Amino acid sequence: MGIFDKVKAIGKEVGIGLNAQEQYQRAYEKGVLLQPPDYSSAVKHFAKASEMFLQEGNGDMVKLSTVNAALYELINKRDLNALPEVIQALEPIDEIPRIGSQDEMIQTSLLITELRSLQYEQQAKMNESYADRNIQYMKAAEGFMKLGNTPLHISERLQLEGPVEKAMQRAFYCEGLSDYYSALSVVMSSPVQAHDHMQKAASSFRQAMVTDWSKTVDDYIAKVSSKSHCWMCGREMQGEDVFFKYYPAETEDYHTHLLESSNDDLRMIDNADHVTVCTVCGSAIENQADQYATMRADEVRIWADELFKQTTDVLKDHNERLRSLESVAHRH
Amino acid sequence: MDNTELEKIVDALDRRIALGEIDIGTYKQLKAKFSTQVGNNEEPISAALSALPKEAVSLQCPGCMAPLPLPSDPSQVSVICDYCGGTFALQTASEEMNRLKSDIIKWISQVAGNAGIGTTVDEASRKFIFNDKLLPPLKTAADRATDIFSLTRYQSLFTFSLLNKLPSSPFHHILQSAPNLNYLVDKIKETLVRVQSPEIKVFAIGEKEKYELHALEVRCLEAGYLSNVRHHLANPTPDGLHKAKTNLHALNELYNTTNQLVSSIDPSLAEFSEALATRMKLLEEAVNTLEDLFCSTDGVMTDYVADNLELIAVKLEQTASAIEATGMKPKETVPAAEGTRNDADTVRILATCVRFYGQCGAETEMPFTIFLANFEEAVEKAQIPSSDLRWLSAFLSNLILHIESIAGEVSLPIVSEFGWAEGRMVTLVKSSFFSGKESVEGERKILLPFWLAELDFSQQKGMIFKKGTMASGLILTEAMRHNKQCFVVTSSDPLKDQCCNAVKSHTTIGYSTPAVVPVVGSDDALKYMKQYISSTQGYAGGNVRQLRLIYLPVVVARYYTQKSERRETLAPSNSITLSNFDIGLLNIGTKKVLFAQ
């Protein structure tokens, strides 16, 4: 090997004088396949390779390099807002190398379905409306369900919450979230419907094997399905802590007997030293109590202000007297 | 004048007395006159009451509110409930019923404002009183009495003793969260007696009213029956299994009656009730099979029984789908369908156990109960705190494959070459100045199960100009115990080719080399592998594929000097370092299996 070849080899080693294909290969060698992988370096090299392929007029490789740059950027930064661009880059291609591999190819259609579902999930997270979240999570679930029991390619690398290994499990997870938010969106108008949605959510979370969500939902079901009459207005309400609450009160056995003899709802006093009061009566009392408390506080403030003013005047008077006494004392 | 005209006159009298147009004396006189002519001088309520079908006076069990059998002998002082199995003094039960029943008329008078028996209230008024006065408090009372139970009532119903020690099974989760039966009965008894009383039934005139009353009765009664089924199956005895069947039969009848009552009013509910009735019927068959297995002293036709149980499981799954398709609200259908599917899974596990019993015990007429007790011990040894039905199902199928492979009936991926052992034993011999050089002997040869998967990862070369390349190998994790340890076998390791060959050409375990039973499920194995890859330097971003079970040869070597001795477990690759373990022998029926401890 001559000196020129040696210089050329060193140059290629440090990334100088590479052609497009070498630049593409370098993205793997100096990024994807390093231990640990350096995805930012891979993105840089894929982007450069894309430009070089463009100059060469190699359209297929331009697309492939662009997709790889977008995908590894997504994995590197875990910025789900970039999903639309990644999907757009994937659409014109049929196959790409599997993430983390150079040789094994996967169909982009599967990847696009996965990413679209993730995009719906992201939209749901960003949305403040429970009803919209319900719709977006349902769309995400439908997408994952289409993938069946296949493994997910990207989700696991984005460190997302919930199951990330199998599409089916993620589908159940999203379905559970959809029903959960659906329940929250209707609970103020119909706790009965909310109960129905929560029951579906509980089943989906159990199928997705997400125990923390299962427990949250089971607890919610117990509350939203519970009914009691209001001690004040006597109306029956459904949904503990939603439409009725336990308020502290003095209750004795006598009250239990009283309810028993009149065939009234014993739930009203099933919690010792508490009665159930509907949120309307409860809030009316609380608001009125607040108003009285504010009124009383204002009265006290006026009385205290007057008192403080008088004290201040007395002090001021004393100060003036003291100053005049001091001035007399100095003259002597 | 015909009866219709006379009835019209009597009705007109009712109206006129109500409007104050005639005095009470005239009313009574005229009413008596015309009523006699009608040929029926009974009061409407008394007439309705006497028109009700006559039933024998029955007692209800104070323990579960199911009907108690009538004493066959007048001198009998106590009675055993066919449903809950409790024994009660007849006098106590009778006094309790009398107390509850005596309150009913008083209660009706209070609630309905003296519109009870002995008063002149026509059908329309009775219907109005029922809907407006009687039904709402009954509904509230039934709601309150059963609302804790309603969250779990349709969930898993079927279990058998193998699942009792499983740390996580849906049946036991429900059993723990379901309210105590005594508490439940205490709450429902008053409402149930009221709902079932003839005094209330005379007010339930229309079809809808009759159904409303029946729905309340179902809600109260099913709480007792379902609770009884769960308790009898959780602690199974021959008598308990029989009682579980009795309860399931009662539930089947209850839901069938609902189906008939509501078919024209609410088709969705009718379909739902029909599906529930089918579920109870199928479970009754499953419990019947379980009872036969537990009690039979004759031989068991295991294939026939297992086929039958598998058919029940399939039908249960179809019933779960039928429940979902009924159009009832999800709060009813979701737990019912989920519970039915869990029942199907449990029945399927029982079927697998019966098939297994056919291979190791049935032919020697060993009782099924003894086989199951052995098997429970094996499950207890193999499980971890997170083990659930899925794990049990996987463990069972792996265990059956293991035993069948020992018998030479099933081929599995097995590396059975021990030629490497001699050389490796020698390389690990130590020598020291004080105790001299160790001697070594191969103490035992065994086959150990491992989960095997292909691993794609990248390798980094170069110090200054770092460069990554693709690499592949195999990743293994122990399947004989849950110690989460994983090993990577690279392409250069001869074991890789041996494993690949074993996967391509399966063979049987046979009797020549003892083999340890796999206890780790594939889900857990995959989890352990992924944890290893993500936490071990050099494998970041690696991809695991094609998980399967494989048996590898292992040698336990004894190294000794005059002063000391030690043991090493040697595997066919330097990449695999096994910590020491004991091996225990366990009988499952007529078979002996090795477990790592």
Task: Offer a concise description of the structure.
The complex is a heterodimer of chains A (332) and B (597). Chain A has 332 residues and is mostly helical.
Write the layout of secondary structure elements.
The complex is a heterodimer of chains A (332) and B (597).
Chain A: H1 3-14, H2 20-32, H3 39-56, H4 59-77, H5 83-90, E1 95-97, E2 105-107, H6 108-126, H7 130-147, H8 167-186, H9 191-208, H10 211-224, E3 227-229, E4 236-238, E5 244-248, H11 253-261, E6 274-278, H12 279-331
Antiparallel strand pairs in A: 1-2, 3-4, 5-6
Chain B: H1 3-19, H2 24-38, H3 44-51, E1 78-80, E2 87-89, H4 90-112, H5 123-150, H6 170-177, H7 181-196, H8 198-201, H9 207-234, H10 238-262, H11 267-295, H12 302-324, H13 330-359, H14 368-382, H15 389-406, H16 421-427, E3 431-432, E4 436-437, E5 439-461, E6 467-478, E7 486-490, H17 494-504, H18 522-535, E8 543-560, E9 565-570, E10 583-588, E11 591-596
Antiparallel strand pairs in B: 1-2, 3-4, 5-6, 5-8, 6-7, 8-9, 10-11
Helix pairs in contact in B: 1-2, 4-7, 5-7, 5-9, 7-9, 9-10, 10-11, 11-12, 11-13, 12-13, 13-15
Morphology call of chain A: flat
Characterize the quaternary organization of these chains: heterodimer
Distance between the termini of chain A: 113 Å
**Total helical elements of chain B:** 18
H/E element string of chain A? HHHHHEEHHHHHEEEHEH
The fraction of residues in strands of chain B falls at 5-15%
Largest β-sheet summary of chain A: 2 strands, antiparallel
Largest sheet of chain B: 5 strands, antiparallel
Strand order of the largest sheet of chain B: 7-6-5-8-9
Give the % helix of chain B: 40-55%
Unreliable stretches of chain A: none
Number of helices of chain A: 12
